[in-house]
Target: carbonic anhydrase
Amino acid sequence: MHRMDEILAYNREFVKNKSYEEYLTTKFPEKRLVIVTCMDARLTELLPKAMNLKNGDAKIIKNAGAIITAPFGNIMRSVLVALYELAANEVFIIGHHECGMTGIDPNKVVSHMKERGIQEHVIHTLRHSGMNLNRWLTGFDNVKESVENSVDIVRNHPLLPPETPVHGLIIHPETGELEMVTDGYLHLEARG
Model:
């Protein structure tokens, strides 16, 4: 049986048994939070539990490394939509120790792409058209600095609602311990 068949079989039982009922909520986050965090599989259940979040409490945006690189990219757009249209009023950027984006080698990633069937001419065309694959595939060397950089992009965004606290944290992927990198409330007070 393929993985998709297993998932669909399970899903039929999930719906038939009304197992979804315990997860019913609205599209508006109860705790009014928007969280940008890493897609690391260890955080799927750990992060919400470590933050005392249940289904419906927060908007959680995941990507590789919890990195916001482009002020007008998809991640920042999602943050702004959560703040303006979905009743969120605080932002949390949460990186984690032992992240796969730490020290990632873009050349190695491109090599893996080729091993998995991407043709050299495709890589060449992308590079020739101005796509900086090395920059696009680069991670970070220090998770604390990465969180600080992402927080700065959000805090300094021209469309961020004034007085929005933007916090930066690091979570340990085994224990769930949260480490404060930057406190959004203190930043607003100092600015104020």
Remarks:
- The chain has a mean pLDDT of 95.
- The chain is about 40% helix and 15% strand.
- The first strand starts at residue 33 and ends at 38.
